[in-house]
């Protein structure tokens, strides 16, 4: 599948979206029945685009059939990770697909209310989405008795206040409830006990936007696209030392080499590739050789020792200092740790402190090993994976670029050599 289904041209306006076939998949879904819609999305193999790649249809099926009272559908558009900017582009270019995907998901799980949790800094997108919701309501695609089916579904837009942790699904739910945005222990999972204690499905905006085309063209078509374990297209947002940074919708499984050389126009100013964070700021780094041999899908990246994450591809050029780069990540995660779990609160702070010392030439030879053991002690020991989001890149940076860390610990910093670049 080379065609774009998410970032289609000229569908930002509801009339154009409708003219291109939009909102018909909802009508089809309403005629199929809830169980058949869940079965179709399950058979399509769609995996969540928020980072973990969890199968979407399976997640929907976890909502208890016999639950009394309300259920909720939440669209996660918080997008706060460094290097991630795909949902923002999607919301600007194809907001109706997100709304239609929400209505279909809401129907499938029996929810009559949906929330979009949008990153606080996305003011223009929030205004744009508000207008998109109003337009969909005016056409009868949202609201009471949609298309005469008896199904009611409406959407509230909830603006975040700028905390990265509120992208984690349970912290997000607390934030909507007006509580402090801190992750909750799972189980119970949101599908059983979520927003206001009711069964809730949280899906990423890109995941939901993929749903209308699955209903329109069928699960078999979708499952035959992309790569076997990762069907469909993906929004890759590429930043760093490339000629054409930006968001590219490409089939999952596209070789990294093609993404870099064909779509992004190669390395900026002919620089040499040094490393890649293929799944955003929380993914383990790949060396240039590893990256050039990998395909961009869940299984291939896991086999290469990294992950697809949210699809934020950060390209690092030769000469860039990995110690300083890790320092940038550590400062971010230290700032964004909610402080609930000691390994995260203390670990991010210690990593930041050690890295600041190394960057400034105040490090000691033992600091590199301390940093490594600190990162190792942070993995898998917290309520949510924010600590792992620093620990995993840290461990990969240290193991793959150890000489740079040791050089800093011996006082040979790149600040002395001009800052950010190696001597
Ligand atoms: C610290 C942290 C931040 C996260 N931020 C986001 C985010 O901005 N957007 C998102 O969709 N998922 C984010 N996630 C993942 C969500 O918890 C959740 O898995 C996702 O929204 C589920 O959607 P999906 O099944 O469609 O992938 C974050 C997770 C963590 C631990």
Sheet with most strands: strand arrangement:
6-5-11-8-9
Helix coverage percent of residues? 40-55%
CATH architectural category of the largest domain: 3-Layer(aba) Sandwich
Strand segment tally: 11
What proportion strand?
5-15%
Q: What order do the SSEs take from the amino end to the carboxyl end, as H and E? A: HHHHEHHEHEHEHHEEEHEEHEHEHHHHH
Unreliable parts? none
Computed structural class:
alpha/beta
Heterogens: flavin mononucleotide
CATH class category of the largest domain:
Alpha Beta
Largest sheet: 5 strands, mixed
Mean pLDDT: 95
Explain how this protein is built.
The protein is of the alpha/beta class and 423 residues long. It has 3 domains: 14-223, Rossmann fold (3-Layer(aba) Sandwich); 233-317, Ubiquitin-like (UB roll), CATH 3.10.20.600; 322-409, NADH-ubiquinone oxidoreductase 51kDa subunit, iron-sulphur binding domain (de novo design (two linked rop proteins), Up-down Bundle). The chain contains 18 helices and 11 strands. It has helices at residues 14-19, 24-32, 34-44, 56-61, 86-93, 95-109, 123-138, 169-176, 205-217, 219-223, 256-263, 288-292, 298-303, 322-336, 342-360, 366-378, 386-400, 402-409; strands at 72-77, 113-118, 154-159, 200-204, 233-240, 246-251, 254-255, 273-277, 286-287, 295-296, 312-317. A 5-stranded mixed sheet has the order 6-5-11-8-9. The protein has a 4-stranded parallel sheet with strand order 3-2-1-4, sandwiched between helices. Helix 7 links the parallel strand 2 (113-118) and strand 3 (154-159). Helix 14 (322-336) packs antiparallel against helix 15 (342-360), helix 16 (366-378) packs antiparallel against helix 17 and helix 17 packs across helix 18. The longest helix is centred in the C-terminal third of the chain and has 19 residues, at 342-360. The model has no long low-confidence stretch (mean pLDDT 95). Flavin mononucleotide is lined by residues 48-52, 54, 59, 76, 78-80, 164-165, 167-169, 202-204, 207, 384-386.
């Amino acid at each position: 599948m080379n065609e774009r289904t998410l970032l289609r041209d000229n569908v930002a306006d509801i009339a154009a979206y409708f003219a291109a076939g939009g909102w018909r998949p909802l009508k089809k879904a309403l005629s199929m029945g809830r169980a058949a819609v869940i079965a179709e999305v399950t058979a399509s193999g769609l995996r969540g685009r928020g980072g973990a790649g969890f199968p979407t249809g399976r997640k929907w099926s976890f909502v208890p059939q016999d639950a009394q009272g309300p259920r909720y559908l939440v669209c996660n558009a918080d997008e706060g990770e460094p290097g991630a900017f795909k949902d923002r582009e999607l919301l600007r270019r194809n907001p109706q697909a997100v709304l239609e995907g929400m209505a279909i998901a809401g129907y499938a799980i029996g929810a009559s209310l949906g929330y979009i949790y949008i990153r606080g800094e996305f003011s223009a997108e929030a205004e744009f989405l508000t207008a998109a919701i109003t337009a969909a309501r005016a056409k009868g695609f949202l609201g009471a008795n949609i298309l005469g089916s008896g199904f009611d579904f409406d959407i509230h837009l909830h603006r975040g206040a700028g905390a990265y942790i509120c992208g984690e699904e349970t912290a997000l739910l607390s934030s909507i409830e007006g509580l402090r945005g801190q992750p909750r222990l799972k189980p119970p999972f949101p599908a059983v006990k979520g927003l206001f204690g009711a069964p809730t499905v949280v899906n990423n905006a890109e995941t939901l936007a993929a749903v209308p085309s699955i209903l329109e063209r069928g699960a078999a078509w979708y499952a035959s696209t992309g790569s076997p374990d990762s069907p469909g297209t993906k929004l890759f947002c590429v930043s760093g030392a490339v000629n054409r940074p930006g968001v590219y919708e490409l089939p999952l499984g596209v070789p990294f080499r093609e993404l870099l050389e064909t779509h992004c126009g190669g390395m900026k100013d002919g620089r040499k590739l040094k490393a890649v964070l293929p799944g955003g700021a929380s993914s383990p780094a790949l060396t240039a050789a590893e990256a050039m041999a990998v395909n961009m899908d869940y299984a291939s990246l896991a086999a290469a020792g990294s992950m697809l994450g949210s699809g934020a591809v950060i390209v690092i050029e030769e000469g860039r200092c990995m110690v300083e780069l890790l320092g940038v990540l550590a400062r971010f995660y230290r700032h964004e740790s909610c402080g609930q779990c000691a390994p995260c609160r203390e670990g991010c702070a210690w990593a930041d402190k050690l890295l600041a010392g190394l960057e400034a030439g105040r490090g000691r030879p033992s600091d590199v090993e301390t940093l490594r053991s600190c990162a190792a002690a942070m993995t898998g020991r917290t309520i949510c994976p924010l600590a792992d989001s620093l620990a995993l890149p840290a461990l990969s940076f240290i193991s793959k670029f150890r000489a740079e860390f040791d050089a800093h610990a011996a006082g040979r910093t790149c600040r002395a050599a001009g800052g950010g670049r190696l001597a």
